[in-house]
Amino acid sequence: MPESMPDLSPAIPVTCPFCGLLCDDVTVRASGAEIKVVDRGCAVSRRALEQNAPDLSPRIGGRAAELDEAVAAAAALLANARQPLIGGLATDVTGMRAVMSLADRIGAVLDHMNAPAKFRNLLAVQEGGWITTTLAEVKNRADLVVLAGTDVVTRFPRFFERFVWTDETLFGLSSAQREVVYLGRDLDMAAGIAPDGRRPFQIPCDVVALGAAFGALRALMAGRELQAETVAGVPMAQWRTLADKLKSARYAVVVWAAADFDFPHAELTVRALCELIKDLNRSTRAAGLPLGGSDGDFTADGVELWQTGFPFRTGFGSGVAEYDPQRFATARLLAQGEADALLWIASFDERRAPPGSAVPTVVLGRPGMVCEREPEVFIPVGTPGVDHAGHLFRTDKVVMLPLRRLRESGLPSVARVVAAIDEAIAPC
Amino acid sequence: MLTRLRGGRVYDPAHGVDGEVRDLYVRDGRMVEAPPPDERIDHDYDLAGRVVMAGGIDLHTHIGGGKVNIARVMLPEDHRADPLPRGSLTRSSCGHAAPGTLATGYRYAEMGYTACFEPAVLPINARQAHMEMGDTPMVDKGGYAMLGSDDFLLRLLAAREDQQAINDYVAWTLHASQCIGIKVVNPGGISAFKFNQRSLDLDEEHAWYRVTPRRILEVLTRAVHELGVPHPLHVHASNLGVPGNVDTTLATMEAAQGLPIHLTHIQFHSYGTEGDRRFSSGAARIAEAINAHGNVTADVGQIMFGQTVTASGDTMAQHRNSHLASPKKFVVMDIECDAGCGVVPFRYRDKNFVNALQWAIGLEIFLLVSDPWRIFLTTDHPNGAPFTSYPHLIRLLMDRSYRKEALAKIQPDAAALSTLGSLEREYSLYEIAIMTRAAPARILGLTDRGRLGPGAAADIVVYRDEADRERMFARPEYVFKDGELVVRDGAVVKVVWGNTHVVKPEFDRGIERKLAPYFERYQTLRMDNFKISDDEMCECGHGSRLLPHPCRKP
Known about the structure:
The complex is a heterodimer of chains A (428) and B (554).
Chain A: E1 12-14, E2 26-31, E3 34-39, H1 43-49, E4 59-60, E5 63-64, H2 67-79, E6 84-90, H3 93-106, E7 109-110, H4 115-127, E8 129-132, H5 135-141, E9 144-148, H6 159-163, E10 179-183, E11 201-203, H7 210-221, E12 230-231, E13 234-235, H8 236-248, E14 251-257, H9 266-280, E15 285-291, H10 297-308, E16 314-315, E17 322-323, H11 330-335, E18 341-346, E19 361-365, E20 377-380, E21 390-393, E22 400-403, H12 414-425
Parallel strand pairs in A: 6-7, 6-18, 9-10, 9-14, 10-11, 14-15, 18-19, 19-20
Antiparallel strand pairs in A: 1-2, 2-3, 4-5, 4-20, 7-16, 12-13, 16-17, 21-22
Chain B: E1 2-12, E2 17-27, E3 30-32, E4 43-46, E5 50-54, E6 56-58, H1 66-74, H2 76-80, E7 83-84, E8 93-94, H3 101-110, E9 113-121, H4 126-134, E10 140-147, H5 151-158, H6 163-177, E11 181-185, H7 189-194, H8 213-227, E12 233-236, H9 246-255, E13 261-263, E14 271-272, E15 280-281, H10 283-292, E16 296-299, E17 306-312, H11 315-320, E18 330-335, E19 339-348, H12 353-368, E20 375-376, H13 390-398, H14 400-409, H15 412-417, H16 429-444, E21 460-464, H17 469-474, E22 478-481, E23 484-488, E24 491-492, E25 500-503, H18 512-522, H19 527-530, H20 534-540, E26 546-549
Parallel strand pairs in B: 1-4, 1-5, 6-9, 9-10, 10-11, 11-12, 12-13, 13-16, 16-20, 25-26
Antiparallel strand pairs in B: 1-2, 2-3, 5-21, 7-8, 14-15, 17-19, 18-19, 21-22, 22-23, 23-24
Helix pairs in contact in B: 6-8, 9-10, 10-12, 13-14
C-alpha cells in the first residue's frame, strides 16, 4: 500500500505507540531520520520516539545479509521445525494478521512477551468476569480513583495529567472533587497530589496481601464483623475508611496494572478485586480500570482472539487451534525443550530481546537490540507509528488508533517480513 | 466469462418469481439477460429439481467488535468443543457461541448466507468492528452505528438544539464510523446506568440530562428518515427481558409517530405478566400491532435451547440479568462517554418455564405476523442462539408436525400457556426467500442484492429440494458470491472476502465546529482519529470494496 509521507517540518500531533495510553496529542518534528518530541512528551515517549539506531542490516549467523537472504534463512529454519514458537508478538494489527497466517501454516504456538502479566487478568475474566471502564469515563466521571499496587505513572506517565487532574469534564466534576487513594508501599505518589495540594490517602500494604485486603473490604461492605485487628499488616480502621469511601463514591474507579502484580497466582488477587467491584455495583457505581496495552499486547491478543476465538498461548501444531495458558507459555516451552525454533518479534522496544535459550532463533527486532547470544537470523524491523503506518489498541481494548509514519527509514514492517516468510514456506 | 444455471426452480420474491423453472445467467459477477443463442457458455450447471434463491442476508448478527471479542475470551470451554481444523483452503478457527471471524465467514457461506450486518457498532469502537469484519471471509458486511446514550447527542437534546443539528450529527457519525444504519439500544439507558439508574422507562427522565427515551427515539427516527438513510432506525427498545415489557414495546412503536422504525429481537420485548408466575406471552398483541402498523418492521431474535452467550450494548439489562449467567461469569463495561457493553453467558433450558415460553413466544410472533416482508429471521446471534441454528429454525417454521413435536418436549406449563400448538401456519419457500433475502435487502437499501434479476450482484444459492428443510438449508449444493463458486456441497471451495456496505448521507460539515471542541475538552482522542477514512477501510479489509448506497431525502 502506498504511504504518503506527512509533512512533519512543522510540529504536528501524532499518536505515541509506546505505552497503552496511546496519547494522540504528542507533537513531534521530524527531520530526515531524526524525530524530536516538541510538546506533551513524557519519559517513555521521548526515549522511544527520539531514538535512531544505525544498524539497519539483517544478519545471518552474525554476518550482514540482504533482506531476501535473511527471509529465506528464516523460512528454512521455521519450516524445518517440528514445534515452532512465535513469541514476543510486539507488533501492530497488520503485523499480527501476517503472523496468524504463518502460525497456522507452520503449526506454531503463539505467545506474547507480556503474557505473564496479561494472564493475571485473563484468567480472572475467564473465571468470573469483571466490571470495567475506559479512559474518557474516568476523566469525566471518577470521583474516587484507587490505585491498587501501582503508581501507574512509571508505566503510563501521563495518566494523571490527562485523565485525573482535569477540570474539563462533562458532568461538572472538578479536580477539587476527586480523591486519590494508593494501596501499596514504595510507590511514586507525586502525581497523585491534587492541583490544590491535597495529598492522596495511602494504605501502605504489601501488594502480595492485596487479595486478603479486597476480601476484608467485601466483608466490611456487607456489614460483617471481622475478628482480625489488622489485614495485610494494616489496622482495620484504615480498611473501614476505604470501604466507606468506596461506598459513598458516585463512580469509584480501581486502577491496577497487571504487570505490577508480579507474584505467583496474582490472578486470584485480580479475581478478589473484580468481585469487590461487582459487590459495589449492587448499590452504587464503580468500575475497574486494568491498565496494559503496551508493546502491542492487547493488539496481538485482539487479532488472535477474533480470528481463532482464542487468546494467545494458542498452538496450531495439531491442525486445530488449541488454547492452553500453562502448556503454551514461552518460558516453559523453551525450558522444557518443547519448542525447537523461535521466531521472536519485538518492534517497539529494543530492550525486549528474546529470552536466553539454545533454541534456533529468528529475531524481528527494533534496531539496537542486544541479544544474549547472536540469533541465527536477525532482521531489523520498523516500529509502527514511527517507521510505518499501522493500528494499535489502547489500554481499554475499545479504542483502536491509527498510527502514522514519521520518517523514511527504509526498515520493513513486521507484516512485510512475516508475509515474505509465509510466502517462502507456502506450497506453490 | 458466462455462467448458466439451468432449469432450477427459482424463488425470487423481489421480482415476484415463486418457484418457476428458469435459466439464470451470470457474467463478471452480475446477473445478466439471456445471451444470444450462439454465445459460448463457459460454465453450465444443470439445476433440474433444485431450489434457487439469492444469497441469504442476515440483518442482525453480532459478528464483530469489542463485545464479541470479550465473549470470545470468556468462553474457551465452549470453543474447545467446536474446533475448526485447518483445511487445504481454509484456516484454523473455532465455532459455537462466539466463533472466530474465520469460522463465522466460512459457516455463514456454507449455509448459503452471503451478507451479514453487525447491529451494534459503537462509533468509538468502529475501527475494531471493521477490522474484525475485514477478517470475516466469504460474506459482505455492514454495521449499524449505535447512538442514543452518547453524551454528545444527549447534550444536544438537553440544550434543545434543533433537529437539523441532530441530523448533521447522525450523518457525521455514519461517515465517521463507516456504517449503513443507525441503531439505538435502550435509548438513554446505557448512559443512565452510568448514573446508577437501574431502569429507564419510555417516559422516564435521564437523571442528568432530563431527557426521556421517547424523545431520543423521536429525534433519531426523524433524523434517519430526513437524511434519507434507507434502513429505518434500528431499535433495541427499553426494558429488555422485563416481564410486562410488551406495553413498552407497543408504546415504542407509537413513539415513531408513523415514521419507519425497525424493532429488533422483538421476542425479548414481548412479555406479559399474566399467570401464576407473572410471565406470559405478549406475542399476539405485538403481532397485531405490527400487522396494523405499516411503518413497523421487526426481527424476532428467536431463542434456541442450549449454551450460548448474550452480548449487548444494554449494560443496564445485562447487569440486571448477570445473576442468571451460566457459567457464572459476566463482563459489564462503561465505554468512553459513547455507550457500553455487557456479556453474559447463558444456557437456555427447555425444562425451564421462562426459557421454554421465550422459545414459544418467538415462534408465535413468526407465525402471527402476516407480512413476511416485515418480519425477519434472526436469533440475534449469539444472544438467542448461534446463527448456525438457522436451518433448524427454518424447519420449525416450515414444518408444522415437526414444530408440534418440539412443543411437546418443552416445560409443560409453558407449552400450555402458549398458543403455538394451535397455530397451523407453515412458511413456504417463497416466504422464507422473502424474510431471509428479498426483504432484508429492501429494508437495508441494497438495491442489487437479495434478488436475481439482470443487473443484480450474483450472490446465488442452490439447494437440493429435501423434505427435511433443516438438512436442506444447512448444506446448499452451490453458493456463488459475486458470480464465483465459493461453496460446493456445504464446503468452502474458494475463499473470498466480500464487500462492505455503507451509506454516506449529505450533511452540513459545520457540525464539526461543535464536535471539535467537544473532543478537545472531554474525549480522550482527537476528532480526526475518531473518523475512519475510505482509504483506511480498504487497507484494512483485505482489499474488499466499499459500496456506498444512495440516500434519498423524502
